[in-house]
## 1
Amino acid sequence: MIYSDELIEEVRLRNDIVDVISGYVKLQRKGSSYFGLCPFHNEKSPSFSVSPQKQMYYCFGCGAGGNVFTFIREYENYSFPEALKLLADRAGIALPQEDESEENRKRRDLRTAVLDVNKKAAKFYYYLLRTEQGARAMAYLKDRGLTDETIRSFGLGYAGQYSNLLSRYLKQQGISDSLLKESGLVQISEKQGMYDKFWNRVIFPIMDANSRVIGFGGRVMGDAKPKYLNSPETIIFDKGRNLYGLHAARSSRKKNMLVCEGYMDVISMHQAGFTNAVASLGTALTSQHAALLKRYTDEVILTYDSDEAGVRAALRAIPLMREAGITTRVLRMEPYKDPDEFIKALGKEAFQERIDQAQNSFMFEIEVLERSYNMKDPTDKTRFFRETARKIAEFEQEIERENYIEAVVEKYQTSFEGMRKLVMGWLLQGVPARKQPEQRSVPPKKEDGIRRSERLLLTWLLEYPKLYPVISSRIAPEDFSDELYREVAGMLYRQMESGKPDTAWIVNQFEDPEQQKAIAGIFNTEIRVESPRETEKAVLESMRKVMESAVEERSRRLDPSDIAGLQKLIAAKREIQELNRLHISL
């Protein structure tokens, strides 16, 4: 659906950027702006700036920037309509629904209702954990080493020892039987009638990326089976498309994601400071999980249990990650079974060392493959190298094949030429190539001096509006060197004429996130001057550079027969000379 510019602008104006970003980043006021640690790259000193006056954010470390729409799109990995919907809901603005069928409306209303039921259930479980009947469950969590803060932050709870406690409570809250069935929180049998899905279990609320409770996991208190139980698939809960802990891990400023097996692994890792840990929900990792992870990271470290089941799970996950374009490494847990056990035994520093030393996923696959062959038997050893060569042949790029041949040769002390010939043999047979992970983007080159001066002028225009007649009478938007700068300058000039500069509105006129980022950078150029007099000198020097650049460009394009153009060029050069006598006061 296409929304009007007026509606989009209303949504933006009703969502103060400081209020919105404060929900994601801890901000502290410094002067006229707010600063915090950038959520888009890993940093120790705050360089992430949010300006209430400009209604823009900008990171002086990585260059991320834009308005409130840009932030939601980048942080949540949302499309523009999704970001608009989130901010409209936040501001209580109803977006028009175009041609929404009755069926779609009912489905949307049901989703909203089930989310509300889950929220009520989570609060009830949370309450029960802190009552006398939840004492045993609380003791279990404490014995596992969890702190009160960790228990609170993950919303852990307890499903009472009777099988109708939750359903009775929810009915008292006005929830109908049909809605209880849709939520998956109850079951029905001819013998028992309606009864709770979870009872006498420690409860782990499962949240989506937006921290909405979409399901539950339960660990039994006793010897009943199954030991762990999850919510069934519902209108809001799909095990294959959600990850436990993602609501917390997505805001981690770590460069990768740690993917493990269970709830307790995720929780204990977060408690130890590894806040980028997630887990699948009682199922093997799926291609949908991989696509979800790709929204938040380019690298995954598999931290599965060290037993045979964990090895098989890693081998299944590696090709899925590769297909999604994610670089994958494998963390070795030996001699311990899982991350929780490892951290308790050796501490978080030792676990960080294991993360740093995590093994390349291809070399892990080869190491596991080796176990299927008797490496002391010449025939078996040859078969192993042939199968290894087949796997190497799947890589598209020759340089990558060469690198892996070298790695295998070094590890197994075999002939480079021999391995290379085996790989070439498979290539001649047409081995299908494996999809390679996408490369991280190359940092932009350092900007030239002219663009720096242009950025400074546009930033100064916002800081000191009285400069507008001084600058605009000598420098027109078309004098700027770059098309984007010319467009931005033209919009800002028109706003300055009306006395209502609004840079966040300017950002909104561009759909490309990279352009929005660039515009935020233009209006947040660092100005390193210590006094008003130095600023005045710097303004004049920047004007001189921009004017000289514009004159040089005009001279290059000037037709020698263009007398009027030549006269304008002479006048422009005279204006540059007159800057020596120009005095401005801020």
## 2
Amino acid sequence: MNSTLTAVTQRIRERSAKPRGDYLARIAQLNNRQRGFERMGCANVAHAVAALPSNDKLRIVAEKAPHLGIVTAYNDMLSAHQPYEDYPAQIRAEAHRLGATAQVAGGVPAMCDGVTQGLPGMELSLFSRDTIAMSTAIALTHDVFDAALLLGICDKIVPGLLIGALHFGHLPCVFVPAGPMGTGISNSDKAKVRELYAQGKVGRDELLKSESAAYHGAGTCTFYGTANSNQMLLEAMGLHVPGSAFVHPHDDLRAALTREAVGSALDISGRLAGKPAKPIGQLVDERCIVNAMVALLATGGSTNHLIHWVAVARSAGLLIDWTDFSDLSAVVPLLARVYPNGSADVNQFQAAGGPGFVIRELLDAGLMHEDVLSVAGNGLRPYTFVPQAVGQGGEVVREPMPAASGDDGVVRTAAAPFSATGGLKLLDGNLGRAVIKVSAVPEDRHMVEAPCRIFTTQEAMLTAFKNGELERDVIVVVRFQGPHANGMPELHKLTPPLAVLQGKGFRVALVTDGRMSGASGKVPAAIHVSPEALAGGPLARLRDGDIVRVCALTGSLQALVGDAEWAARDVARLDPAEADVNAHGLGRELFAGLRRNVLSAEQGACTWL
């Protein structure tokens, strides 16, 4: 095992000893209860099974058959979640075949960040994660299930489902994906049209035509953003059936994998074979969390997970921080280049070897913990096999992963990586702590030093760009975008104009207490700056024209201002009119309590602690 991997895992274990111990004690207490239908009153049982067919009632009450709960994030607003429409019927049929029953316990909200990007709805996006977690808890609190199947894919949905499930840590759980949409136009062509539109060289009709050719059918968007990073991490954590992340929704193999997920849920419930259950709270230990962190770094995944997986870990009684990510990044090689870190999409990533290839390489290099529990059994090695066919009985057939990459421009071995280190860096300095994704940033842009121009909204920055005010070396600062201020929206509208400026030869970078996911791409972006400006963080001391240094080489985020002057400066305040806009309209009033109580980005932006 790599010594840094071992050291980081050990310090997480030691740091988390008290909360993890308390968490496992609560799981053990809940596991010692009678089965749900036996400990409930007769009226409670009658309500629970009232709408079920008579045969199911008989199985549950008289035969004491295993009972599965389904928590679904289905809606047809999200292309990725539209295929879930008929999953409950598939799951019930397979459960019946295996001698069990299944019931939809509840649904959770699922918003499409692609629809709300740059609009007021995006200010609810981060908080939707905890809303989903609470909705998951409401569904599972019926407390009659022997295991749960969790149906979700996209940005905040998977972290929310996982956080909610971990608060029912005594319950065995399996995540059920639905796969990516087919490949559309190339990501590079899409980016070019966006940049041309930002410069006013093409109109709205041309832009809409391009976007519609990229996002065109059922399934996950095919770039490697938060949604597809979710799927990579769930494979690395052993919470999917192996190899199920990136199989197309309409492939026959997809239906077989969904059926297999039902069997896996029943298997880890222990009810069919009379063996001990494998609850999710035991599966998700410090080794499992470290495996997820390593998988993220090795694939140049979404920076959102430096927030989400801190919250996920907390839900299992584990304490991680950005220093843990940074230390792992220093030893984890970059094994994949998928847009925005390369030209390939996730379908090409899957064809080249996908998650199984990456996990195999990391295990063999001693950069993942193999000796973990998973929904597929003991050890992570099953996740290095490829589901390639369906047998005569409808079962999934798996074959060993080929030794060589299917395309070494997309996926490489640990012996010949794209980079010796991961794609994420921690920045620290008198402007606070931030993260930067450098896997797609040209090496000559890993350090940018320039006068800053400060904005408090995306719209103000876009106006300045259109007016030609940013045609120079510049550090664009967009502050008052943190969780307390307005829910920490993603700032994707900034990417095309910044790319245009960089393309003209200017040295540019972004600094913000907001989010950018993985979409900053080739422009250096110091994001998630903590503490945030509204909480009095040092970003609020910055003034227009200050020289700012963003350096991924040394891990520095610095305003080049004398210490005495810096300490004497007043902290800028958000204009009350802007604060009022952030607080009202399109449901934002309902989230005021979450904005008040939310922890910092590095603390997972948790609202329940």
